[in-house]
Amino acid sequence: MKTELMSANYAAARAVVSARVEVVAAYPITPATTVPEQVAYLNEEGIYKGQFIRVESEHSAMFACIGASSTGARAFTATSSNGLLYMDEALHWAAAARLPIVLANINRSVSPSWNIHVTHDDSMSKRDTGWIQFYVASVDELYHTIIQSFRLAEDPRVLMPVMVNADGFVLSHTVSSYDYLEPEEVDKFLPPYKPPHWVMDPANPVSHGNIVFPEYYQEFRYQMHEGALAAQAVYEELEEEYRKLFGKHFGGPIDCYKCEDAEVIFTSQGTIGAEAKDAIDQLREEGYRVGNARIRMYRPFPIRRIRELGGRVKAFASFDRSVSYGFGGPVVNDIRAALYPMKHRPLVKSYIGGLGGRDVTVADIKEIIMDTWNAMEKGELGREETWHDLW
Asked: Least crowded by CB within 10 Å, which of 17, 42, 173, 274?
């Protein structure tokens, strides 16, 4: 393992090399552009030895990956925002066909109005496509999660595509140290992909994607659901194997920090979850028993881990960098639903903010946690939903 300085997008391209990805198809869109740009450069230099396909749209990029994965090739693409939305039909197709494609989505606000900075609306709007979703908080985490995602997606117990989300510009265009692996090292963790089901092979023709009548369609969808549900336990198993091989562990589906004796836990996704650790440290020094739970895996939603936390805390302060119009933050509503069957249900307060790249500082996070702390002490929920830093 070697250490170097790199932006998240270039590190994602390096992960393509390390994982011996056979096909990359991509169309440029800010702020994901430098991922395929760097893959193309590494391809020209002979460092990336797979096929790089230049296509005319994000829709075509995903369908090119579907074609490649259907032949048994390991496939990857990257996109952002409206590009991810343009892939929508193909995202459903890849998941329903059980193709283990990996996509790096560099989170960006959806237009209009035009804004190229981070909001999680693009990927949150794809939560029901069947794709497993991760949200990462560092360059190092993005690189290693992409490698882990291929193994997770290709596991016969899962066999679903994976979307790894990274905050636009906050990570994509900032440089940080990360540890990378040579392909020969990754081979110990990630063997060549051998499809356990059908493949497109002229020597052995099969028919795929035919009409499925009501007698069987529901069973196909149930199997997808089972595969997605299995992903949490399988990932925890794989991440432990990865830790033993390379010493890297990012916390499983939820990265908990000082949660053991916490009365109030702050939850969020992406880089805000990393920033929150400083707020927790400062509030701990001031005498408040608070913790941070950074939700790394959003689909499947880590219900069991949320209930474990909910069973011993008094309140959650949930921060969403996205909004489901008319129903608030998407993640907070998943937390509430996960806690509903429990006899002891902690207070859950919802905060929405950081949209369009608006800065969320340590002071902001402390203010949010203390608002929840005060509600907990009063025993009253107060405002169910707060848009933080709203005019």
From this structure: 173
**C-beta separation of 160 from 224 below 8 A:** yes
Task: Tell me the three state secondary structure of residue 220.
Answer: helix
Task: Decide if pLDDT at 344 tops 90.
Answer: no
The Cα–Cα gap between 32 and 23 comes to: 17
What pTM value is reported for the model? 0.97
Q: Which two tokens stand for residue 67?
A: 């074609």
Question: Taking the CB of residue 49, how many other CB atoms lie within 10 A of it?
Answer: 12
Can you give the length of the chain in residues? 391
Locus of tokens 């096909």: 23
Q: Write phi, then psi, for 382 (nearest 5 degrees).
A: 70, -145
The SS3 assignment for 147 reads helix
254 burial class (0-12, 13-18, 19+ CB within 10 angstroms)? buried
Residue with tokens 């981070």: 118
Dihedral sign computed on CA atoms, order 269, 103, 148, 167: negative
The C-alpha R_g of the chain, in whole angstroms, comes to: 21
Q: How many CB atoms lie within 10 A of CB 173?
A: 15
Torsion of CA 331, 334, 340, 343, to 10 degrees: -60
Q: pLDDT for 162-189, tens place per residue? A: 999 999 999 999 999 999 999 999 999 9
pLDDT digits (tens, 9 = 90+) for 192-242: 999 998 899 999 998 888 899 999 999 999 999 999 999 999 999 999 999
- SS3 of residue 107 by DSSP: strand
